[in-house]
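User: Could you check the structure of this?
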Amino acid sequence: MAKLRAVFRCTECGTSVPKWVGRCPGCEGWNTLVEELDDVSKVSSAALLGKRDAPVPISEVDAHEWQPKPTGIGELDRVLSGGLVPGSVTLVGGEPGIGKSTLLLQAVASIAASGSKVLYVSAEESKQQVRLRAERLNALHPDLWLASETAVPHILSSVDEINPAVLVVDSIQTVHTPDISSASGSVAQVRESAARLVTTAKERGLSVVLVGHVTKEGGLAGPRVLEHIVDTVLAFEGDRHHALRMLRAVKHRFGATDQLGLFEMTQHGMLGVPDPSRLFLADRRKGVSGSVIVPTMEGDRPMLVEVQALVAHSELPSPRRSAQGLDSGRLSLLLAVLSERAGVTFEKRDVYALAVGGVKIVEPAADLGVALALASSRFNSPIPEDLVVCGEIGLGGELRQVAHGERRLAEAARLGFTRALVPRLAPDPPEGMKAIRVGTLAEAVAAVGIGHNASSEF
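Assistant: Sure, the predicted structure tokens are below.
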């Protein structure tokens, strides 16, 4: 009989200890140890040797042997810097129901249509469920093979039988290796299963895509080593109540990580959004106080986003401060600077701030836009419709220029905006757009006609 022993393994670094402790001795993380059962009578498959790779002079290595192969999904290829690289392992993480399986099924169907054989392994759904989704997405193709399997050895046998160019495993938390006695999804199982698949990918030149679950904190479930052994980590994000989905590269060994892919969830699957600014501004209501258009940067992609604020009277001892799509700490900072440096107070008033469309804005370039939206709602004074606002605010109330100013203003000019409120040292706007330069937050509030010191700029 197999001899089992209880061990406590860290979910972050994989360190094992015989009894539970509050702090991991390996990575010093707190409350990261979970109990698992180890089979001491078997040798871990991670210790088994694979094929030996003979060393060669670095000058003789063919750098063009493994080139990215497009998936046929434009936004996905943008994030992957051209496509999937043979021999690479890509991990796609996201919340349940966000659309990971839908996107990958569309991608592998496009790859199969280009003449490459693809194996899609669903460890969570039956073949019939995947077939129904494929029919809805028009993703049926004879070169797209489907298996409903949870055992890694059986998956590798299918790879030997079919010899695909791309393998998708959905998901890595639900497959298991029989050599490990712990349950599927445990630290040991995820690490061991991923290690076997990575070894197979490197030996065969096989592109492997793994689907990963996320924790309630938003991080990938499983050991941290999972992110280290794969070549690419993609994060699929979005608000369930909105159709917009964003794909980012958290790690990418074959290209940059500053690209952003945008998709719209429809009944026919994921559709790429080539012009996100028009999507965000499609339902904009003009002439309403508390609404400001901010040119943001997502990676190297400029986007115009509407920021809204609502200031309402409150009888509560501690008025509410709510931020959706914005950093709540940054909102508190801007409220303090508005009060102390610009004379716009919010005593006995609830404050609500929102980035429209389900997008999340974390860059300080939106500071001036958020502050003016708050001041606009506070005095019920609308911001001009043809104005965009961009700038970082310091604690002294000063305005600082932001990176990629030219690209931000060029995107605003493309969509018909004719004026931009920017810091004094900001770059010149494109032809046809007027720059209104201010040095402090108080000057900016006055320049847009809010309060008693309204400027004549408008």
